[in-house]
Amino acid sequence: MALIRQRRQLNLRLPLPEPSDCRPCFSVPLPPTTAVTNNSSFGAISASDLEKLQVLGHGNSGTVYKVNHKRTSTTYALKLVHGNSNDPTVRRQLFREMGILRRTDSPHVVRCHAIFEKPSGDIGILMEYMDSGTLETLLKAQGTFSEPNLAHVARQVLNGLNYLHTNKIIHRDIKPANVLVNSNMEVKIADFGVSKILCRTSDACNSYVGTCAYMSPERFDPDTYGGNYSGYAGDIWSVGLTLMELYIGHFPLLPPGQKPDWATLMCAICFGEPPCLPEGVSEEFRSFMECCLQKESEKRWTAAQLLTHPFVSKDPSMSVS
């Protein structure tokens, strides 16, 4: 194995800390006190324009609020990172996320409307509000997804990934909790704190950041499974695990309810067989999942190729964005 670590108890969804030697390949300065906005129809948005309605969630880097724009009555999601946070990893991830959100413009990636700094030193990222939460919360609330619903979700996530990969951005943390959903089942990729822009074709991206349960085999052992690993194929593996979890209702590499330690999880990913769908699914769905969950990264289909697979392409409304 290319990686040897001390065994420890591991939460299935616990993100790994970013190594100190992992640096983004671009520099994002601290946002100015006036808003930087991508939506000129509303003009500049400042913190004083916003009214907090409720807390949507908490994370290592701050709190996400549902907010209302006082003048336009538009609802947004505000990610607020507190100015008293001196954790260099948190700040680095925040600047990386801001830099990527400023660069992206896709209907399948969460939209950033403004970035600003409050007088207290808090930094705010104002994003579109998705009223049904995440795929993770939807799974808990409504139960497992049918094949047609999964094809609908897969199509949108792959369109988002195809856009990101075309623009040399790898996400590195695709999982149900990082895909947002609207009540009309509009799906968008979010949370770019550990993502990376590949500035050179020779860039590799096999650092251990993200949520280890959804990491691909080559993230643990690039010598065995990596080939010409650049990071894009790792996102595809994560998509496959995410879709299978939505279908069977639990994390697919382990029995329901099992709480793995590091060694158990790493062995399941690297030494175990790829997860299999139960009997009774369509051949198209089974084939699609096999294209996502090849253990050798070079054998996995790309996002663009998966968008041509019959499982998602049979819908006449499908389009690559």
What does this structure look like?
With 321 residues, the protein is an alpha+beta fold. It folds into two domains: 31-128, Phosphorylase Kinase, domain 1, CATH 3.30.200; 135-313, Transferase(Phosphotransferase), domain 1 (Orthogonal Bundle), CATH 1.10.510. 30% of the residues lie in helices and 17% in strands. The chain is built from ten helices and twelve strands. It has helices spanning 88-103, 135-142, 147-166, 217-220, 222-225, 232-248, 262-270, 283-292, 303-306, 310-313, and strands spanning 15-16, 36-37, 50-59, 62-69, 75-81, 112-117, 123-128, 169-170, 179-181, 187-189, 196-197, 210-211. Strands 2-6-7-5-4-3 form a six-stranded antiparallel β-sheet, covered by helices on one side. A two-stranded antiparallel ribbon has the order 1-12. A two-stranded antiparallel ribbon has the order 8-11. Strand 3 and strand 4 (62-69) form a beta hairpin. Helix 3 runs antiparallel to helix 6 (232-248). It is globular and about 55 Å long. The two termini are 38 Å apart. Mean pLDDT is 81; it is low at 1-11, 13-42 and 316-321. Residues 50-312 form the Protein kinase domain. Keywords: ATP-binding, Kinase, Nucleotide-binding, Phosphoprotein, Serine/threonine-protein kinase, Transferase. It catalyses: L-threonyl-[protein] + ATP = O-phospho-L-threonyl-[protein] + ADP + H(+); L-seryl-[protein] + ATP = O-phospho-L-seryl-[protein] + ADP + H(+); L-tyrosyl-[protein] + ATP = O-phospho-L-tyrosyl-[protein] + ADP + H(+).
